[in-house]
Structures are given as C-alpha cells and as structure tokens.
Here is the input.
Amino acid sequence: MAYNLVIVGYGGMGSYHANTILKDNESIQVIGTFDIDEARKAASDVDGYKTYDSYQAVLDDNAVDIILIATPNDVHKELAIAALQAKKHVVCEKPVTIHSKELEEIMDAAIQHDRLFMVHQNRRWDEDFLTMKTIYDKNVVGNVFQIESRVHGANGIPGDWRHLKEYGGGMLLDWGVHLLDQLLVMVDSRITSVYANLSFVLGDEVDDGFQTVITFENGIQALIEVGTTNFIQLPRWYVKGTEGTALINDWSLNGHIVTQNRGADFEHPKPIKAGKGLTKTMAPPSEKAITKSELPAYDSPTEGFYENVVAVIEKREEPYVKNEEVLRVMRLIEVIFEAADKNEVIKTRL
Here is the structure.
C-alpha cells in the first residue's frame, strides 16, 4: 500500500523532503503542497505537485494520509493538532515546538485520535554520530567520561524567520535540537546538572550560538557547542575514555582513535622543551605506550526514517524517534535557556 503525503510549508526543508528524501520512496507518494507564499506555490507547480488553496482543503481531502509540517516553528502545534483531529498521520520537522508543553498537547491529540505523530530527527542517521555511538557502546576507548560535540560555521544565523524570537529562531532551537538529541540517544543516564551561555555577538534577538555543559548521573560530562561566527572550526567530536581518545573532525569522517597499549613496557616520559620551560607532564607518550587506529565501522539503523514511519502506521514496529525522547530534549532546552539566563548551574533530575 502506498500512502499519500502533503507537505505544508514548501521551503528549503519541505522541498528537500519532496525532491530528495521521498523522491524514490515506494511506500509514500507526495501528492501536493500547501504554502501561503506565492513564490513557493509556483515552485511546487514547477516541481509537479498539486497546490492546495488552504490548509482546510488539505484536511478535507480524504486522499491525504500523511501531512508533513515544514513551516516556521511557532505554528507547528496548531497545524499538527488540526491534522490529527482530521485523522491524518503527521510528520513534523524539528524543533517540534518552541515549548515542551505544546508537544505534550500534540502527544495527547495523537493518542486521542489514534494517529501517528513523529518528529523528523534525521541526524540520528548521521555517519559521524553513528560512528561515535559505536565507539561509546563498545567501549573502544574504555569507559567514556567526557564528550565534546560541536558544529561550527562562519555564516551567521540563516536568513528569514530564524532571526526572530516569536518564530522560535536561534541556534539552540535549530542545531542545538540535533546535537542534544544525539547526546541523549547515546548516553542512557539521567542529567544531574546543566550550565550554559548563549552568544548574541551578531546583534540578533535570538542566540547565534551557545555552549552548554551537561553532567550525567553516570559521571559523564558533555560539552555541546554551536557557533556561527567560527572562521576556524574545532573538531565535530572529541571523546575521552579511560583507555584512549576518539576524534572525528568533520562529517566526512576524518579522524582516528588513540588507545593505551595494555601490557606495554612502561617508559617514563622524557622531558620536552615547552616554550621557555621543560615539561614531562605534557610530553607525548612513547610509541610503545599507544596505538593509533582508524575509526570503526558503525552500527547503522536497519531502515530509514520514512520506512519506520510506514512500519509504525501499520503497527509492525515501534517509532525509531519516540515522542517521549523528543519531549526530554525540549525540556533540556528549556533548562539550558534557564541556566544561561540566570548564569548559574541548574540542578535537575531530567
């Protein structure tokens, strides 16, 4: 059976779903779009999709099985609940909402009307994340105690509504959603404290970047950072364990692992000249003491996002992106905003 999908919001992500992600999908067919912008309506026509004159027309069309919401963040709740009430399944772009309470309302509506609601947390499929999760899960560098995950650019906040607070703009609600989602999928432990600072150096009313330090009950501390004013980028991932360190520089998986050799002949480090002094503490370990290796093959999900959507609709599988997981991310974002606003460490049991 093929399911008919309509895209609401035919901007960059909406058109990407239509013309890339779902282009050759055998189970889901994009049959139309709805957008209030005339230029985007015209783009939909050019791409060969039916354009609806109103959102109500989408809801009233019995041929529509799934609605994809790819609009600015502030209207996600309203659109999602209306679609669920019309007995449509719903896929929503991230961030799912601006506030966690709005997601709770959507979740209640999905249960009430017995329809799927799933958030497109697509970066759970990123190769760099899956590689680092494999390193973490298999203790490749021993027991991990420090995780650094960051994305850096130098192009500022993307254009249009992402500069405005009322629409849910800013980088914490943009890239932060991805990195925090990846972190919570990787580390199965409660969060005990959060500290954060937001960057406003570009003069916008929303953050152009942020740093947050998250401490987990199992002892792991994570630094999550997003920057849009970085002309030199730091590594995408830097992870320390009790037996080594793993580095991934970029999305192309340039990186490596250095581990301590067990049973290697111990050699005291030799002092090196460092600036105007000597140091043994910061001297490199001997060649016998370490092994440098390539990144491991990663464990990949067995299917893609939309394949899972269909399987959940047909009650063959559980959602790969669970709404409870997304809700936890949204609550964490609220704690990060609070920590930055108060400039203090927030104790929590999240």
In short: The domain at 124-253+295-302+331-347 is CATH 3.30.360.10 (Dihydrodipicolinate Reductase; domain 2). The chain has a mean pLDDT of 95.
